Amino acid sequence: MNCTSLSKLVFFFPGTVLHELAHYVTALLLGRAEGFSVSPKREGNTYVLGSVRSTTRYRVLSSFIALAPLIWWLVLFLLFRHIHIIGTDGGVPRIHPGVIREKLRSFGLSDALFLWLFLQLLWAGRPSLPDMKHAARGIFSPSGLLLAAALAVVSYLSSHF
Fold it and tell me: What gap in Å lies between CA 5 and CA 120, rounded to an integer?
């Protein structure tokens, strides 16, 4: 994960750990995790905040490893549903502005902690540019295209039988 300022590096360190941990756990499940680092390194004008090295038998699996941090956005969605900030209306997510207004009226220390946690999970789920490049390489690999074709066939067959 990359960032451009030292203050972001300090503020978002927990989110960076969560981001890299998602890559690492997914690499353990789908391939082989070969390295894990959350030691910041300066590269040109940016800081590389962390990295995970892994190998997989099929390149398409590296796409799942690269996109694993998106799980934190699912956690955020479920958390917001739990505290009733987000609900569903006909299966479509909908934000409840009244709950947000009420929270803002009585903003306290616990809300500040929750806001910091929200920012950490938002940061942790953000795919970096290298993550997106790895995901694209896996999706457009022979194994990725084969998986896409298999899913299309299964989808077609399930809708017609």
Answer: 16
Of the pLDDT bands very low, low, confident and very high (cuts 50, 70, 90), residue 105 is: confident
User: Would strands 51-55 and 2-3 be described as parallel, antiparallel, or unpaired?
Assistant: unpaired
The token pair at 136 is: 């694209």
- d(CA 16, CA 52) in angstroms, rounded, equals 12
Locate 13 and state its tokens.
């360190």
pTM of the full structure: 0.79
**Neighbour order of strands in the sheet with 46-48:** 2-3, 46-48, 41-43
- Among 57, 26, 23, which Cα is nearest to 130's? 23
Tokens 């009226």 label which residue?
Answer: 105
The separation between CA 121 and the C-alpha centre of its own chain, rounded to angstroms, equals 8
- Mind listing the pLDDT tens digit for each residue in 25-66? 999 999 999 999 998 888 888 778 889 999 999 999 999 999
